[in-house]
Amino acid sequence: MNVSLSSPQPHLTRGHSAPSRPGWPEMIIGLIAYVVAFGAVYLILKAIPDDLAVINGIVQLGLSGLMGLFAFAVAVAIRIRGFSAFGLKRASRRSLIIAALLGIGCWVLGTIVSLISYAINGGIGNVQGDYQAAAAAGGVFTVILTALMGAVLTPIGEEFFFRGVLTSGLLRFGPWVGVLVSAAIFALAHGINPVLPVAFIVGIVNGILFHKTGSVWSGVIVHAFNNATALFVPVILGLSG
User: Fold this and answer.
1) Residues whose CB falls within 8 Å of the CB of residue 92, separated by 6 or more in sequence, listed in order
2) 127-136 burial string, b = 16+ CB within 10 Å, else e?
3) 0.85 cut: is pTM over it?
4) For 9-59, how does the pLDDT look when each residue is reduced to its tens digit (9 = 90+)?
5) What's the rounded Cα separation, in Å, for the pair 203 and 165?
6) Kind plus residue range of the DSSP H or E element containing 183
7) Of 123, 174, 194, 234, which has the fewest Cβ atoms less than 10 A away?
8) Which run of H or of E encompasses 75?
């Protein structure tokens, strides 16, 4: 798979101008909507007692996806245009298989980066502890709900907004700007913590995939496999230990 950012996007027709993309209104108002949703989520999570880690983890995962979907819906509502402008178009089976492998690769690379970050910063607590507590809760319903929230809803919500709106809109300024800037915003949205570099890696990979395919679905698969691996591998290793 050629990852050069300078190659033409396959979803552009030779000899024709670029397809309609989200513009500044969609990107700016979408970001405002995301920030507003973030504030609401913060208040909701503050109301959940600290000793309810399992419930907190499931709620956080679900709300992460809903925040993205809310911002995406607001951005789409700004101007009437086809969903294809936001990358909601079919991805090839080959690209989805590659995306699944890349998702696992992102987790491996992200784990290495996180370990380096822990070492440099003298060991910071696991900011995803509530998510993993939900994954390790033991009950079948809880585990299924965690998987649905973390590996289905969150990837769809976040990819629809960050790639479908931001990357798509910023690609008008070139692939380097589109991929790197949207990845940086995506990383910052996860907070200043050890997850930030991991989110940046996922953002870059998914930005490149969006640039190459014009579809958000490859990024959704990367995101889903990365999240599922991050949620359940530590739990499985803990049980086997």
Assistant:
1) 213
2) ebebbbbbbb
3) yes
4) 444 433 344 458 999 999 999 999 999 999 999 999 889 887 777 777 888
5) 13
6) helix 175-188
7) 123
8) helix 53-78
